[in-house]
Specification:
Layout: H1 2-43, H2 50-66, H3 69-79, H4 97-123, H5 126-134, H6 139-169, H7 181-192, H8 195-224
């Protein structure tokens, strides 16, 4: 067993640093941008034709929160090549596995995190808005100067939890042929016929990565809450 661990560990760590962590970081960064835009659009007080845009974003959130991530990966990677549109994509939409994975993880993360950000903004006392208006700020100025900085601190713990979950969810990328940590463990298990050892080993490495991220989350929470007076 120790020989298997010594042989497999470098391959698992390499796969984690080459695919698992980069995919999670890139997808989460893109997902956060999508989440912020989605949350702000859904909170917008504009009327008229803008209601159609709000409805489209609400539908996007509903779709990605109501369907399994694995199914979403299969649709993007295996399904889109069959989406043949004359003049636009006559041969379907064929994506590289890594691109398909990042795209799916980003959209999924954006849907979930948009609700976190939206709830954080709504949790800010209405008096904060009124105080900003009283000194001549517009709604946009109040949002970006007063409300969002407070909402970021409130949303940090759930957003960090979402990122940690995303790191673990990247194991699903093995289903679309991305050679990340879980896929490597499967390949090695098929060679040495020791699936229990390999799957326990890859579980340990996922636990190590997530523990490090949990420590980072705790540090960021302390930094962002340093001016908050404990009650």
């Amino acid at each position: 067993m120790w020989q298997i661990i010594q042989t497999a560990s470098p391959q698992l760590i390499k796969a984690g640093l080459k695919y698992t962590i980069p995919i999670a970081v890139i997808a989460f960064a893109i997902g956060l941008a999508i989440a912020l835009v989605t949350a702000l659009i859904r909170l917008s007080q504009k009327r008229g034709g803008f209601l159609i845009i709000k409805t489209l974003f609400r539908f996007y959130v509903w779709v990605f929160r109501s369907t399994p991530l694995l199914v979403q990966l299969f649709i993007v990677y295996f399904g889109l090549p069959y989406l043949k549109i004359q003049g636009l994509s006559p041969h379907g939409i064929q994506l590289d596995p890594v691109v398909a994975g990042i795209l799916t993880f980003s959209l999924n993360t954006g849907a979930y995190c948009s609700e976190t950000i939206r709830a954080s903004i709504l949790s800010i006392n209405q008096g904060q808005w009124e105080a900003a208006y009283s000194i001549g700020m517009t709604r946009t100025m109040a949002l970006f100067r007063i409300i969002l900085p407070q909402a970021i601190r409130i949303s940090l713990p759930p957003l960090a939890n979402s990122f940690i979950s995303l790191v673990k969810d990247t194991s699903l990328a093995a289903s679309i042929t991305i050679v990340e940590m879980f896929e490597v463990s499967q390949q090695i298990a098929a060679q040495n016929y020791q699936p229990l050892v390999m799957y326990m080993l890859v579980a340990v490495y996922y636990a190590v990565f997530c523990t490090l991220l949990t420590w980072l989350q705790g540090y960021l929470e302390k930094v962002t809450s340093r001016y908050i007076v404990a009650k």
